[in-house]
Amino acid sequence: MLRRCAPLRKRFAFVAGNDGKYGNADKNPASFRRRHAGHRRRQLLAGQDQPGLLGLVGPFGGCTAATILRALIDHPQRAGDPLSLTVNFCAPVAEGAFDLDVRLVKANRSSQHWCVEMTQGGGDVATLATAIFAERRPSWSHQQVVFPGAAPFEQARRFPNTPMTWTHQYDFRFVEGEPSFYGSPASPPLDAFSKQWIGDRAPRKIDMLSLMSMSDAFFGRVFLARQELMPFGTVSITTYFHTASDELAAEDITRVLAVADARIFHRSYGDQHGELWSPSGRLLATTTQIAYFKA
Amino acid sequence: MLRRCAPLRKRFAFVAGNDGKYGNADKNPASFRRRHAGHRRRQLLAGQDQPGLLGLVGPFGGCTAATILRALIDHPQRAGDPLSLTVNFCAPVAEGAFDLDVRLVKANRSSQHWCVEMTQGGGDVATLATAIFAERRPSWSHQQVVFPGAAPFEQARRFPNTPMTWTHQYDFRFVEGEPSFYGSPASPPLDAFSKQWIGDRAPRKIDMLSLMSMSDAFFGRVFLARQELMPFGTVSITTYFHTASDELAAEDITRVLAVADARIFHRSYGDQHGELWSPSGRLLATTTQIAYFKA
Questions:
Q1: Domain closes at, from A76, A99, A134
Q2: Is residue A145 in a domain?
């Protein structure tokens, strides 16, 4: 049985690319660092010209979350598939290099519990994450929730670029609930539901990293509810993976059908919950988050 | 700005009562320990006569989660209201005393990020939790989700005791989806939705601790889907609080209306998502979890 002890800690220091692809298939942090040295670690949520949109947390969290997941998947002691990842965004992340302190807290035959802290320049913790990996043993299967379905990706209109430059990495095609950020603030708030295709702008086979990043690639529900942009930031996101890596690889897809909705906005915080589906109708991941908004 | 450093770590050692009430209104761990010394820390999920029902994780996690939340609320450096709590159950918890290693990872003017590790007898980490506290500043409010509504508590039938002794602490009254554990295994699986009132068997005013514990007090969705009990254990639970403490205190309620459902069971894991409502129709908390089941 593995125990928490010094040798299980491993420090990673690498820089993620600005292509939103969390290192592609390159599993070697050193090589990855060399290739991407000098690139910005993340895109800013709203670009530098609109610092008021940075919000509480800062740049796109999906890439940070995927980067953390990648560090875990690449860890020599990792066993099993990602089951759950929770990422708490403690402070804005600056451009440039960062350190990940990756710790295997507990492991047994069927699961592993990890804790990851991201810091920059030896400063405070900027991101705190916990993850669970598990052996996905065979069992009966049942999808209780119904596949939302949609017109094919090719028939849906590509969503135009927004001032949030991270969105340029994705090909969003809304089927329902396409947001409009530039109207008058809606009062009372509008329905926050949306259904959309999400793929990478440069098509890339969907893997666990894609699912993690895409699970944070919904627009803030509050933007849809109010029909305007405002300072906003995800505070915590949790994503559950409902597919084993081998099953996901066998899907061989480059896009997911995604739905997202909110239940409540109250006292400066709102929630979001979402689902990521394969085009063939398999539920691949579910996600939830709590986010700050400035009223 | 608070930093991660030794003085912010504080070790708690106290024993929770077996009354499912996570310390009642007593805020003093030492006094709490004295009052409850010798009591069992948690109820077993299925009692000692049915160890096959203990599952991956063991006894009722809601009490553990509430105990962790209580340690945070009582921490001298805590500021703001609970916003989010994620609890990862790493290993079964044995009866008896435990230690909580409570660490304030990062704080700023409006929020705090905490990490808590529970151990027993200096052994491996049994429970790993992260929490976020936040100042709930005023904003516009909007409930996107519709109050599910239900016949009044008094008109609903009290759910009979189950072999899972922790359930004896609660007064469950199902409005829809009352589970039946003793039929033939359902194939294909049944609908896993349920709507129910949840109160303490000995009525107790609902506070944040109640919400945390009750958010794990749904029966495993897989029990409803299959109409049978089986080895089962929550692996990770995340609960978001959508009310400030002062608002919750003003509600002055002793029960919540709760709904829960599952989206998928696959490769030995299934999810759950739920909502906890005040009888007056205010959404107090939302919760999600991923759980192991033995097929």
A1: A134
A2: no
In order along its 295 residues, chain B shows pLDDT tens digits of: 222 222 233 333 333 333 335 533 233 333 333 233 322 222 222 222 223 223 334 568 999 999 999 999 999 999 999 999 999 999 988 878 889 999 999 999 999 999 999 999 999 999 999 999 999 999 999 999 999 999 999 999 999 988 788 888 999 999 999 988 877 888 889 999 999 999 999 999 999 999 999 999 999 999 999 999 899 999 999 999 999 999 999 999 999 999 999 999 999 999 999 999 999 999 999 999 999 999 8
Asked if residue B219 belongs to a domain, the reply is yes
Domain extent, residue A232, equals: 153-293
In a domain, A139, yes or no: no
Q: What is the CATH number of the domain that holds B273?
A: 2.40.160.210
Co-location of B111 and B38 in the same domain: yes
Under an 8 A CB cutoff, do A145 and B263 touch? yes
Count of the separate structural domains present in chain B: 2
Are residues A215 and A175 located together in one domain of the fold?
yes
Among all residues of chain A, which has the CA nearest to that of B222?
A142
- Is B265 within 8 Å of chain A by CB? yes
Distance CA A16, CA A163 (A): 21
B127 and B158 inside one domain: no
Q: What gap in Å lies between CA B232 and CA B293, rounded to an integer?
A: 4
Q: Please, are residues A203 and A240 in contact by the beta-carbon 8 Å criterion?
A: no
DSSP conformational letter for A154: G
Question: Which residues, at least 6 apart from B267, have a Cβ–Cβ distance to it below 8 Å?
Answer: A136, A137, A138, A139, A141, A243, A244, A247
Domain boundary among B90, B106, B134: B134
The minimal CB distance from A134 to the residues B188, B247, B269 is found for: B269
Q: Considering only CA atoms, which of A270, A232, A31 is closest in space to residue B241?
A: A270
Task: Assess whether A69 and A180 both reside in one domain.
Answer: no
Distance of CA B263 to the CA centre of its chain: 20
Burial class (CB in 10 A: 0-12, 13-18, 19+), B254: middle
Whether residue B191 is found in the same domain as residue B273: yes
Q: How far lies B104's CA from each of B66, B80, B132, in Å?
A: 18, 13, 10
User: What does the buried/exposed string (b/e) look like for A238-277 if buried means 16 or more CB atoms within 10 Å of the residue's CB?
Assistant: bbbbbbbeebbeebebbbbbbbbbbbbbbbbbbbbbbbbb
Query: d(Cα A87, Cα A101) in Å, to the nearest integer?
Result: 14
Same domain? A284 vs A178: yes
- B79 and B43 within one domain: yes
Q: Quick one: which of B130, B277, B90, B237 has its CA closest to A235?
A: B130
B97 interfacial to chain A (CB closer than 8 Å): no
Output the six-digit token pair for A185.
Answer: 């603030």
- Note whether A105 and B128 are within 8 A (CB): yes
Place of tokens 């998502």: B273
Contact A273 B288 (CB under 8 A): yes
- Interior/surface letters A34-63, b for 16+ CB within 10 angstroms, e for the rest: eebeeeebbbbbbeeeeeebbbbbbbbbbb
Whether A227 maps to a domain, the answer reads yes
User: Is A79's Cβ below 8 Å from some Cβ in B?
Assistant: no
What the block records as the tokens of B237 is 């639970």
> Does residue B238 sit in the same domain as residue B280?
yes
